[in-house]
Amino acid sequence: MDLNEAALQLYKVEYEKAAERYDNIYRSIWTIFSYMTAVTAGLLAFGSERIEPHALICMAAIPLLFWFWTTYLPLDRYGNATLNRLCEIEELLNERFGTKLGHFAGAKHGLNELSIFKNMVQARTFWDWWRQFYRARFAICLIFILFHVLVAHEARAFRNSGKPLFLEKPATPTVVIHL
Question: Residues 140, 31, 62, CA angle at the centre, nearest 5°?
């Protein structure tokens, strides 16, 4: 095995592992999101009779906000770093070995940075700015910004309501059957 063939094999292994890692990162993000959504749904379904409504919304939002800050943002950064490395490997293989790899380079959509905010600041034309709306990451960040505003509004409404966190247990209705 000559030096070029050995290098090609090493790049191939690195490329395959990085592609697998990239897939696993985003699969993990969405699996954890589904679990947090189930916890939120459970809180909303089973806490509605005993917890003050404004407080319930705040409590139900905690798992999703936790996911956003502790799972989505860090893993998305890691996924972006992996995508950048995959693009570098594709470029290197294309130059050195004459291949025509471009799968992951195409995923970047010609953007220099994978950060929404950096791309919006660096946008030179209206179309560069407009392209940000077609990215899932933009929608996720926008929704979670609005979600933070909703939670802040509901927390303020709960504080101003003066009601206790736990409501009194509703009285069990007495059912009388006449025969």
Answer: 60
pTM of the model: 0.81
Q: Per-domain residue ranges for the chain?
A: 3-161
Q: What is the pLDDT of residues 157-179, one digit of tens each?
A: 999 999 999 988 766 777 888 87
Q: 27-53, pLDDT tens digit by residue?
A: 999 999 999 999 999 999 998 888 999
Comparing CA positions, the residue from 120, 116, 114, 95 lying closest to residue 8 is: 95
